[in-house]
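Problem statement: downstream parser choked on a complex file, so we are re-checking the raw output for the flavin-adenine dinucleotide run. The parser issue turned out to be on our end (a line-ending mismatch), but while we're here, posting the original submission so the record is complete.
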Amino acid sequence: MIPAAVRRELEDRLGDRIRFDVPMSRYTSLRVGGPADAMATPSDRGDLAELLRVCARHGLSHTVLGSGFNTLVLDGGLDGVVIRLSKWRRLEERPGGRVRAEAGCSHSQVTRFCLQRGFTGLEFGAGIPGTVGGWVRMNAGIGSRELRHVVADVEVMSPTGRQRRRIPARDLHFRYRSLRGLAPGSIVLSTLLAVDQSDPEQVKRRVDQLLSQRQATQPLDVPSCGSVFKNPPGDHAGRLIEAAGLKGHRAGGAEISSVHANFIANLDGARAADVLDLIRHAQCVVAAKSGIWLEPEVHVMGRNP
Ligand SMILES: Cc1cc2nc3c(=O)[nH]c(=O)nc-3n(C[C@H](O)[C@H](O)[C@H](O)COP(=O)(O)OP(=O)(O)OC[C@H]3O[C@@H](n4cnc5c(N)ncnc54)[C@H](O)[C@@H]3O)c2cc1C
C-alpha cells in the first residue's frame, strides 16, 4: 500500500502517467497476476529520474517491466511502483553500422527496421517477443546466438535516478539468459547494436524461416511466457519434461503444453498459483527421474495472497 500523501505527490508530479491498483494480468503474456500498487509510464529521462528520486525518498520499491513476456507476477500483486518505458521507442541508425534502440522498442519494430535497411545480425530475434529492455536484461536468444553478440553498449540509469551512464560491451557480464553486474533496480534505457549490411532479400528469407519454425513448434495461440526453464548444460528442459511424462499435465487452468513441454499455457482462466504449482511439480518430477534440477528462466515476482 502506498501512503495517501505519497500517492498525492506521485499524482502531482506525474499526472496521468501514474495509475494505482493496476491488474498485472493485463501486462504479462501469461495473463495472470494480482494488482501492482502503482504503474508509471515516464515520458523521458528527466521524468524517470524524478520518479526514482520520489521512490527513493519514501522507501518505495520499483520494478521495471517490458512487455511481460518473461514475467510471472504472483496473485497477491506487486508492491511499489511498476515502471514501463512503453513510450520509449526511438530507433536510430548511427555511423559505423550501429543502431541505437530505446528500451521500449518492440522486437517487431527492431526486426522491421533492420529488414528495411538490409541490416543483418539481429535475425535470431525474429519471433522473440518483448522489448529491447527485456531483451538486454534477459540476454535473449536462440541456440548459440544471443543478444550479447550484437550489443556495443547499454545505457543505464541508477536505481535512485541520480546517475546515467553508457556501459561498453566489454564491461557487461552477459550470461545465458541473464545480465549480471548491474545494481538491483537499475534501469536499461537504451542499447547500441552492431549490425552489418547485407542483402535485404536474404535477411527477409532468414527471418521468415525462423518465424515459420516457431509457428510449427510452439503453442503461439495461447497465453504463455515462452520457455519456462533454462536448458541445463548439454540438454533441453523440454526434452526432460516430456521424458518425465508431464506433457499435458494440468493444474487449475494452466497446462504443461502438449505442443512444447517447456511452455506452460494459460488455457482457462489460470491463476499464478496454478502456474507456480506446475513449475514446482515439473522441477520435482524431473529431478526424481533424471537428477537434474531445472532452473526457471521466467522471472517470478510479487507477493503470495
Ligand atoms: C511465445 C514466446 C516465445 C519466446 N521465445 C524466446 C526465445 O526464443 N528466446 C528467448 O530468449 N526468450 C524467448 N521468450 C521470452 C521473452 O520473449 C524474452 O525473455 C524477452 O526478452 C522478454 O522481454 P520483455 O520486454 O517482455 O521482458 P519482461 O518480461 O517485461 O521482463 C523480463 C525481465 O527483464 C526486466 N526488464 C525489462 N525491461 C527492463 C529495463 N528496461 N531495464 C531493466 N530491466 C528490465 C524485468 O524486470 C524482468 O526481470 C519467449 C516468450 C514467448 C511468450
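For whoever reads this later: The domain at 91-217 is CATH 3.30.465.10 (Uridine Diphospho-n-acetylenolpyruvylglucosamine Reductase; domain 3).
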